[in-house]
Structure formats: structure tokens, C-alpha cells
Amino acid sequence: MTATTSSLAAASWRVGCRRWLGEVFDQPASVRGVAVLRIVLGPSVIWHLRPFLADSLSGITYHDRFQQQWWPWFPNAPTGLYVALLWVGVAAAVLMTVGLWSRAATWTAFAVVAYNLFLSETHFHHNRAFLVILLAGVALCDNGRVLSLDARRRPPLDDRALVWPLWLLRFEVAVVYFASGFSKLIDSDWVGGRVLHDRTIRYQHEVRDTLGDTLADPVLEVVTARAFHWVLSPAAVATELFIAFGLWFRRTRLAAVWVAVAFHVGIEVSAQVQVFSVIGIGALALWAVPSTRDRTLVTPSRWVGRLDWMARFDITVVPGASWCMVDRDGTELEGREARQFVMTRLPATFLFSRIWRYR
Amino acid sequence: MVVVQLALVANGYRDPHNFFAFQPFNESSTYAVELVRVLDDGERVAVPDGRWEGYDWDELIDWGPLRSPWRQRHAFSGVDAVVDFLDHALDWVADHSPGDTETLYWEAAVTYYRNARGPYVTVVRSHERELGGP
């Protein structure tokens, strides 16, 4: 009996794996999430290149300051060519954003950002490494099929393409949260609160400068207390690990996305992380199920169509009608329940919707 | 690519810079450097505020994490990363100060606190320069 049960479970697992591999490598699916990320990455590339461009306008390039080569064979561009490459990167980023020659533009932006990163180890930051990886993943995907001028110029049959790069990107995104959280989990100084406490003590003057004495006093009394960091640090580690794993499962995905947005906003407010917050939030679009218009919605409201950036719904606007939504599995919701469900699936409203009621 | 990424994450526990291993905000460590020039005859000359023979450390290096290291600074990406960069920065200074015809090599005594524990001291030095001349 036990042997039969376990062999059935193994067979079921094998079938599940085969189906998943088929979905990943053979079946076209919507690339809308990747296209959203492309649009976010465009301005992020410009923001990333901005300090290098500003220096070049003052006549300074990496040649003029301390640099540490990654590899002796890596080619060094002469100053003029280097500056030209930076501007090529900017142009590519603009094209990425509007979706003109989307894939070539993304490859070009990737090449410029990666080349600049690998010119010197002093150019390395974790957010820049993440940016390079995201650019490569987006470039591997046929990302111009939707939300692009390319799609307007030569409309494709649909927004579907092979999505193995999407799965690769999902893996990379999860790795970023996992690697960060796990390294802190096994570091007793970090998880025990010593690192964050010491940083807070040393940078408390910045809190005072920002908030002023009256507001800063009670805030600092809390955040400089050692006990506060016994709670905050494990919570920060748990947050990163929850995002890393929670994004993979349907039941926890929405909550993980919500936590990730709060996490990135918190980091942006408290630290200088360059483009990390923006691209981190943009990459959350990758976790939308890669199918579009597979839920039907009848609604009296026109704003749903305008806010449905991920094309979650096949929308029919009927003035005066009550809300009615049919989910992928045939579940039908009406009235207030339908409206609340819809709000949990719109990027602009999901943060404020009642996420705990729906899977 | 999956295997390469996992290998890089694992390598982060060995590599002082954690390249592509995604371990941000890993330490709250601080460091300060006592910089000296060691001349051909063995004399050790302090380099106050990073200025000597018409050169300026901050102008030569011009990189935030190693700016004014004689003051106590936050160790960007951790002490090990800073010490490694400082080691290479001394070589950079040795190679980019041709007007200084006296210094045989540079030496930096790094006093650091790792996550508020310490102080610990480590010493790095540049390669020796050719001082021969007419």
C-alpha cells in the first residue's frame, strides 16, 4: 500500500516536472511582465550612467582615478570612445523605454552597462550587478511584442513568446533576496542586531539633521536602543527570505510582492542604494502569471481598463451593470467581492486591497 | 547560468568583495589609515592629510570608499574589501606619482573595528619603485 502510494507520488511528480519543463521551454506565454520590466530598466540605465556622464562632461573618466582591473586582458577604451559608449547606452535606454527596436536596444544597453562595470572593480555595486543581470534576461526575451512602438509598427499576432528567460529572471531575482537574507542569517553579528545597531548609532546625526531635534529625540530613543535591533535584524532577515521563497508559490505570491514593495521603499528611505529599489520593484512584474485576458470581467467602470497594465482581465464595460468576474478556474464573483478581487490584481491598487481574502 | 550564479553566491563567502554574491550591508565596520612613505634610505615619513611632494591622495585616488582614509571611515563592503582595495590603491599611487623621486614604497597601517569589535591592525604596502636616475 505504502509502496503504491509512493510510486504514485513519484509518477505524479515526474508528470508535474515534465509539464513544467514544457511550459518553460516549449510553450509560448505572455511576455508582458518582461515588457514592463524593460520600460522600468530604461530610465534606470540612464540614472545609473548619470554620474559617469556628469564626470565625463567635467573631463574626468575612469582613466583619471584609481581603478582596479578585473582581468588584465579586458580592453580599455580610449577616453573619447568610452564617453561615446556611455551616450550610446543612454540612447539605447531611451529606445528600450519606448520600445523601438526593443531587443537590440536592450542588448546594447546591457553591453554598455556590463562593459562599464567590468572596466574596474571599483565600479562594482550589488545594484549594478543586478541591473546587468536583469538587462541580459530581458534582452534574451522577445520583449518588444507588447507595450512598445515595435508592437504598434508591426502588430504581432499576440503578446506570447518563449518564456524561459522569464524563468531565468525569476531565479535571479529570488537569488538576490535569498543570498542577502541567508548570508545575514548565518552571521551572528547581523542576525543578533549588532551590525544594524552600530550603523544606527554612527549615523544618528543624519536622522537628527533630517527630522530636527524635536522629532528626532523620540525616534532616536527607540531606534538606538539595543533591544530594538534584537527584533529589527531578525525581522529584516526573515523579510528577505520570505520574499525569496514566497514569490514562487501562488498562495504567498501576492503577500510576498506586497512585502517586497514595502521592503524596497524602506531601504530607499534609509540607505543610498542607487537604482536597486526601482529595478527591484520593477522586477516584481516578472511574477505575474504569464497569461493575459484570461479572466472575464463585466464592470460599469472605465478606470479598470486604464489600470489593468498587466492585462489580467478581458473587460467589458457596461454602464449601470453590477460587477461580475469569472476567474481562470471558472469561479464566479459578483458585486463587492468581484470588485475587491479586481483591486487585488491591479498594480496601482493591490497594495491597498484586502489581500488576505483571496489566493 | 543557474549553476554559475549559485557558484558566485557560494564564492561570496570566500571573496572579500562578494562580487555577484549579493551580500549588501554585510558589516558596520570602520577603519582609519596611517599612511607613510618609506624612502630609499629606510626613513619613514608620515603623510599628513594625504599630501606630499605636490601630490594629494584624494585627488590621485578620487574614489569615495578610500577618500581621506586617515579619518575614521565606514568600511564600504566590509573591512576585507577595503584592505584589498587599499593594497591596490597604494600600487596605483606608486605608479602615478612620477614627480616623487624619493619614495621607495608606501605603507598603510590600517586600524579597524569589525562590527564595533577591536581595534585590530593590519599593514599593507605598495610595490617598490625604481628610483634610479641620472
What features would you describe in this structure?
The complex is a heterodimer of chains A (359) and B (134). By secondary structure, chain A is an alpha+beta fold. Helices cover 63% and strands 6% of the residues of chain A. Chain A has 16 helices and six strands. In chain A, helix 12 (226-246) crosses helix 13. Chain A is globular. Chain A starts with a helix and ends in a 15-residue tail after the last helix. Chain B is of the alpha+beta class and 134 residues long. Chain B has one domain. In chain B, strands 1, 2, 5, 6 and 7 form a five-stranded antiparallel β-sheet that branches. In chain B, strands 3-4 form a two-stranded antiparallel ribbon. The relative contact order of chain B is 0.20. The interface between A and B is medium-sized, with 33 and 33 residues.
List the helices and strands and how they pair.
The complex is a heterodimer of chains A (359) and B (134).
Chain A: H1 2-25, E1 28-30, H2 32-57, H3 79-98, H4 102-119, H5 126-140, H6 149-153, E2 160-162, H7 164-185, H8 188-191, H9 194-202, H10 204-211, H11 213-223, H12 226-246, H13 250-270, H14 276-283, E3 295-299, H15 303-307, E4 313-317, E5 324-326, E6 332-334, H16 335-344
Parallel strand pairs in A: 3-4
Antiparallel strand pairs in A: 1-2, 3-5, 5-6
Helix pairs in contact in A: 2-3, 2-4, 2-5, 2-14, 3-4, 4-5, 5-7, 7-12, 10-11, 12-13, 13-14
Chain B: H1 2-11, E1 30-39, E2 44-46, E3 51-52, E4 55-56, H2 57-61, E5 73-74, H3 79-95, E6 103-114, E7 117-125
Antiparallel strand pairs in B: 1-2, 1-5, 1-6, 3-4, 6-7
